[in-house]
Amino acid sequence: MCYNFSKMEDIMSTTVGIIDLGSNSIRLTLMQTGADGSYKLLDEIKETARIGENMGPERVIKPPAVERAVRTVRLLHRFSRANNVDTMFGVATAAVRSAVNGVQVLETIKNETGLSFRILSGREEARYAYLGVANTLDIKDGLVVDIGGGSTELILCRDRKMVCWASLPYGAVNLTENHLSAPGSGTGGLERLESCLCSAWRELSWLESARGLELLGVGGTMRSLGRIDRKQINYSLNILHGYFLPSGRVNAICGLLRDMPVEQRKHIPGLSKERADIILAGAAAVSALLAFTGSPGIRISGSGVREGVFFEHFHGGGPGPVVDDVAGQSVQNFMSLYRVRRQHALQVAKLSLSLFDQLVSIHGYGSWERRLLGFAALLHDTGNVVSNFAHNKHTLYILLNARLDGLSHRETVLVALIAACHGKIELKPLLQQYGDILEPGDDILVRRLGILVKMAENLDRSESGVVEELVCSIGEKEVLMKCKTRDDAGLEIRELYKNVTNFNKVYGKRFRFPKEDV
Amino acid sequence: MCYNFSKMEDIMSTTVGIIDLGSNSIRLTLMQTGADGSYKLLDEIKETARIGENMGPERVIKPPAVERAVRTVRLLHRFSRANNVDTMFGVATAAVRSAVNGVQVLETIKNETGLSFRILSGREEARYAYLGVANTLDIKDGLVVDIGGGSTELILCRDRKMVCWASLPYGAVNLTENHLSAPGSGTGGLERLESCLCSAWRELSWLESARGLELLGVGGTMRSLGRIDRKQINYSLNILHGYFLPSGRVNAICGLLRDMPVEQRKHIPGLSKERADIILAGAAAVSALLAFTGSPGIRISGSGVREGVFFEHFHGGGPGPVVDDVAGQSVQNFMSLYRVRRQHALQVAKLSLSLFDQLVSIHGYGSWERRLLGFAALLHDTGNVVSNFAHNKHTLYILLNARLDGLSHRETVLVALIAACHGKIELKPLLQQYGDILEPGDDILVRRLGILVKMAENLDRSESGVVEELVCSIGEKEVLMKCKTRDDAGLEIRELYKNVTNFNKVYGKRFRFPKEDV
Question: Which family is it part of (chains A, B) (predicted)?
Answer without folding.
Answer: Belongs to the GppA/Ppx family.
